[in-house]
Every structure is written in C-alpha cells, then in structure tokens.
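S.,

Sequence below, as promised.
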Amino acid sequence: MDETRKTLAFAGTAVLVTVAAYLAAPADPTPEAFSDRGEVFFAEFTDPNDAASLEVIDFDEVTGGVAAFNVVFKGTRWRIPSHHNYPADDRDRLARTAAGLIEVRKDDVVAEVAADHEALGVVDPLDESVASLAGRGKRVTVRDGNDNLLADLIIGNSVPGREGRYRYLRVPGQKRTYAARFDVDVSSRFGDWIEQDLLEVDQNRIEQVILKDYSIDERTRVLNQRDTIILTRGDPDWTANRMRSGQKVDGAKMEDLLKALDELTIVGVRPKPAGLSRSLEDNDEGINITRSDLASLQEKGYFFTGDGQLVSNEGETQVRTKDGIVYTLRFGEIVYGAGDAVTAGTVAVGTGGSGGPGENRYLFITTGFDGSMFPEPRRPDDMGFQARADSLWTEADRTNAGLQEKHETWQRTVDTGRRTSADLNARFAQWYYVISADSFDRIRLRRGNLVTTE
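The prediction came back faster than expected:
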C-alpha cells in the first residue's frame, strides 16, 4: 500500500512540473534573436524613385572631425549642397544607392548591447554622448521629396571570415547590430557624383596647343613673358614654333599632354562671385568686376594687367579644336589641405583648420569660338533656282544650288560652334576648379620637356 502511494505521488508531481513548464513557455518557440531574420531593413521603402535626397556622414578618427556629403534634387536637377550646390551629373547613382538599400536584409544578429558597437564599427558618427572617437561608422540617410525618412543606416566594419561583401549594420537609435550582405556603393566622394569629362574634348580633335609660360609681378601687374610654345598638329607629326634644324616634338610627351587634357578631371570646386560669373557668361560685352570680385580673383592667383588682360600667376594653356572651340586654362594658386578642405573649401568640424599638403591647384577656364577657322563661302549669285523644279535647272542654277548648300553647311558649322562654346562658357563661368598637381604637371610643360634633338 505504501509503495502504491509513493508511485502515485511521484506521478502527480511529474504532471504538475509538466503543466508548469508548458504554462511558462513562450507562445512562439522561435528565439527572439532570430525573429526578424531575413526581413528587409526598411519595409516601407519600396521605390528607389521616391528618393529625393541622400546624406552620408563620415567620421575621421585621425582628426576627430565629421564630414557630411549630401545630394539633393533642387529645381530641375540634382545638386550637391555640401559642395556649393555643384551639379550632380551622375543622376543615376542615387537611384542605384536607393535600390541597394531597399534590398538589404537582416541576416544574423551579432550584438544586442551598445557596449559592442565600438568593436563592430557601428557607433553613430553623430552621437556626441559617446566619449570614444573609435568605432564610429558611416551613416547614410535617404529622404523623399517631402523630407520623410525612407532609410537610415549605420555601416560598420567588414565581417571577418564571410565571403562576399558582408558588413555590420545598425539602425540609429537601436542597440541590435546585424551582419548582412551589403553590396551598396555608398560613395561620399565628390568625384563620383560629377561629370568626369571636364573639358568635353576629344584629344583626336585637338589641332593646336599653345603653352604660355609667364609670371606676373603681383605688385606692379607687369607681365614677364618667358616663352610661348605653339604646338600644331601635322601629318603625321606635331611641330613647334621656333624649332631649330634637327629638333622635333617628342611624340610620347605630346601624346601624354593630349591625354591629360582629354582626361582632365577636377578634385574640387569653389563658386565665383555671382557678378563675375554673369560677366564671364556674356563675355562679348567684356568683363565688369567689383572690388569683391577682384579680391576673389587675386586670392585664387588671378590678376588683371594694366591693359585689362586677365592673367594667372602660373601661366596658361590654350587648346584649339577642329570645331573652332578655343579653351583657355589659367593656372592659379596652390590649394592646401585634404578632404573637404580641397573638394569644397570647408573644414570638417573638430579639425580646427584645413592644413594639409599643397597637392592641388586652382584652374580658371574660359572658352571662345574662333570663326576665322571657317571663312564664309561665296553666296549664290541668284536664288531663282529655288522657285524651279531641279529638272528645269540651268547650269547656272546648279552652280548656285551648290553654292547655297555649301553656305548652309558653313552656317550650321558656325552656329554649332558658337552654341557649343556658349554652353561650355556658361558652365565654366560659375566655378573656380581645383585640379591635382599631377594634372597640372602633365599640362604645364616647358619647351625643354617637349622639343628634343633628333
């Protein structure tokens, strides 16, 4: 009897334990850490065309400064507010970036506490409550045209041991950090968003390059013209003015010069004063400048001579194409600094000043159209042929029709050249450009660099 009671007691206890365990168990047996695995980060962001602005915040651990880069749709085109509203010519990049953010999914949860953020590189670069400067990630934010938030993500370190492009990711304001495949090119590099072909010139259509080697006395405005090298395309070789017997233009050096002009890219921009820009855009009426315009020019290394000629303290290069477009490139002062100090002329918060090396230089570009390259052909003596069927044309009619066709072709060529020059000049007139020292060195050659003895 006692054994029976004991057996029943053990059985009853087991039942109670089982019931208690069942009641204490969560309704969903999936661990909470895996509950959102596979989900997209921003479920309501589904159309990349909704994106109207993108901001990228980077943190430099060396300087302790925050650098902000943003692209916004303003008026009728994309612009870069962080760089003086310079046009963002790669308009498809924002759509590609937005589409990539839409597709990013939460793969693995790797941390649940803020203490792990630094090691994973996902500390918010804007979080001033965190004392340490280490471990701050790159924050990318996308908004729509009404300034509604579409995506906001902190991109951390690469995930070690994972094939493909896996990064640690965290949504600002949340402690949880994920390891996820991240194939989005979130570029905060100014050069990735702008027109790479600055001059829009084909080196094969360049037929003359003039290198003006001079200096200017900034106090007296007296120009010291050391040399002018006129390089002209021949068949097949280039020639230079004032070549002595047995001399020739170095073909390899000339080819590199042409390539440098064709591939000339900018690393930064500065806006010109509005009045100066308008004057340059309509340069047929001359350049009218104020004292502030003059100060802006002189700061960048540009001066007016006593006879009103605009010159630069590092000489200039003229490029003439077969289409009659004449580019004038004036090289100014050295640009010191790095990062935004070069690309936009701004200083990152916390850096205390631009500083840095002088590895870049100002460039001032203007264009014109040389109509003398296209002499106006003879006009028809009589336009009567236009009123007759060509089957009734006389020999004189056919001659006049040929003359009219040649004149119309000439007119189209001249009109196209003038329009192209005006469009280019309108774009160049608004900006001082910054180019690399390498580009400057490849273009600003001396006679000894180009003319050799056979």
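The chain has three domains: 2-29, 38-105+121-153+181-191, 203-453.

Coffee later?
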